[in-house]
Specification:
single chain; 393 residues; alpha+beta; TATA-Binding Protein; Rossmann fold; eleven-stranded antiparallel beta sheet; eight-stranded mixed beta sheet; 10 helices; globular
Length: 393
């Protein structure tokens, strides 16, 4: 991802730069490290850039993973603009724009907030979790033009690749979401989806808690699926197959169907390789057989901080260890100082198996999440209430 390495930036230049920059709104200095964060606004997007001390003579300016926008060109332009404004001595850079590539089809790129009160402009909806190269997603969209196909992919380059293919192939019935599928499912209306595809997810045999399939994912999928809708897992991992089968069988008002080595009309290059190696391909289908009650909880969830303001010494009163609730946790991972009367907090919180990672900006004027609110789930709301308690001490 975009970055530059530059000759060490003096403290005097950093102090003078923030007030004069057309990109940077604030500077945040780590209280327990040497890194610096810049709060940036460009083209209506808020995000952070990190200045990391590589050595005594070299600094690195790069994107921040939590707040990064999907548009890589935007990040590159801002880093290059800051380098010009500060007249930095660049030693190494990967900011050159690739030639010949079409622009991202941003019309089809959706953010998590787009699903808070979503209305689908198609007759039916299908979801693909972790679409990888996008071959199956693109094929399904072409075969079912009256159906909206929501592709969820946490790997940013894969999302970018599919957005380019949407533009090249002239497709209009795909939405791409660069986010965690487990969180997005909680935002979707009940009974709204015909199919959910989970093809060849990472097995995570040594870290099973990281698997996308689990009890909560299964339950949310059944809520989202319309009656007779189907969740389809496809995997080359025998361990994942048996794990999923056990997870799906422990479900009322549904049925389970198994397939082995079924040929599809379109396959990925990895599946083709596995078949040449004569590996088995397993499928587990979970079908919903009942109408789920309407899910209105997300529309009632908000994340206000009320009259929360920065108070002298707050950074010393914040807990250094993670707090574990019955169904959620809160961990303030790092604290940054903003000017003389503010803090930027990097936090992990929410569900144990699908946590949120967010920044919170608190100063004398108020308190807010930077650069966007958490996903509207009940566990995130519980964690938010505990965070608000901490900050109001």
């Amino acid at each position: 991802m975009p970055h530059i390495k530059v000759q060490t930036i003096s403290e005097d230049l950093l102090d003078r730069f923030v007030d004069a920059s057309s990109y940077v709104n604030f500077r945040a200095d780590s209280l327990n490290g040497k890194d610096v964060l810049f709060g940036v606004t460009s083209e209506g997007e808020e995000f952070l850039l990190q200045l990391k001390r590589e050595s005594d003579s070299i600094d690195m300016l790069k994107y921040d993973k939590i707040t990064r926008p999907l548009k890589v060109k935007l990040i590159k332009d801002v880093i290059a603009g800051i380098a010009d404004e500060m007249d930095l001595k660049v030693e190494q850079s990967n900011l050159a724009h690739s030639s010949g590539k079409p622009p991202l089809a941003s019309k089809y790129l959706k953010k998590i907030k787009d699903f808070e009160s979503v209305v689908f402009p198609f007759e039916s909806v299908a979801i693909e979790v972790g679409f990888g190269s996008g071959r199956h997603l693109l094929y399904q969209a072409k075969m079912h033009p009256q159906r909206l196909h929501i592709g969820i992919e946490i790997h940013t380059p894969s999302a970018q690749q599919v957005l380019r293919q949407i533009d090249l192939q002239g497709l209009e019935n795909i939405w791409v979401v660069n986010y965690d599928a487990r969180l997005l499912l909680e935002m979707l209306p009940s009974n709204s989806c015909e199919q959910i595809f989970v093809h060849f997810p990472v097995p995570w045999d040594k870290k099973p808690h990281r698997r996308v399939i689990g009890d909560s994912f299964r339950d949310e999928a059944l809520r989202v699926l319309a009656p007779n809708g189907r969740l389809e897992l496809r995997t080359d991992s025998e361990k994942y197959f048996w794990y999923t089968l056990e997870t799906f069988l422990d479900t009322p008002s549904s049925s389970v169907h198994i397939e082995k080595n079924r040929d599809l009309a379109v396959t990925s290059k990895y599946e083709a390789r596995w078949k040449r190696q004569e590996k088995n391909i397993y499928e587990v289908h979970l079908a919903s057989h009942e109408y789920s009650g309407t899910n209105e909880k997300s529309s009632k969830i908000h994340f206000p901080f009320g009259n929360c303001r920065y108070k002298e010494g707050l950074e010393e009163r914040l807990p250094s260890q993670a707090l574990m609730g019955s169904s959620y946790f809160v961990h303030i991972e790092r604290i940054y100082r903003v000017a003389d009367e503010g803090l930027l907090l990097r936090c992990a919180f929410g569900s144990f198996d699908r946590p949120e990672h967010k920044y919170i900006l608190i100063d004398r004027a108020g308190c807010r999440y930077y650069a966007s609110d958490p996903v509207k789930t009940y566990v995130n709301f519980q964690a938010h209430q505990k965070i608000a308690e901490y900050l109001n001490v």
